Amino acid sequence: MNKSRGQAVGCMLGAAFFGLISLGFFIAEIDRMRAGEETFARVIEAEEGYKSGHLVVAFTTVDGQSVRVKIEQSDWGKLPDPGDRVKVRYVRGDHNNAAKADRNIVDRFWVPVTLATFALTFAYFAVCRLIGHTNKVIRFLLG
To answer: In which domain, by residue range, is 98 found?
Structure first.
């Protein structure tokens, strides 16, 4: 196997990896939007670190089950205080999929779109290597 073909295979594996992860995030978000239930939750714990943080919230599902869930800070911006009521959206049967209910479209899809962009970039480089297209950028990045 020559060097270009090996690099193309590596890029295709990268494209598949990022593509599958992106697909998982897209499916989870679409499922939460389509089949999700909204409810109010009480903040149990709010932990804010230097670059990250999380909330632990407790809520009761529509079928009466009490649930405690950890939600990452990226969904909240400024974290609410313990004891505050917040609105969350979850999917029945998958309560760990809970998220802030009133997120805008950018907040909902920035992670899967970023991962899909990585996948497309890897696929582009793989095709360029297979067809023998080697410009300066590709030589710099893959050489």
So the answer is: 3-142
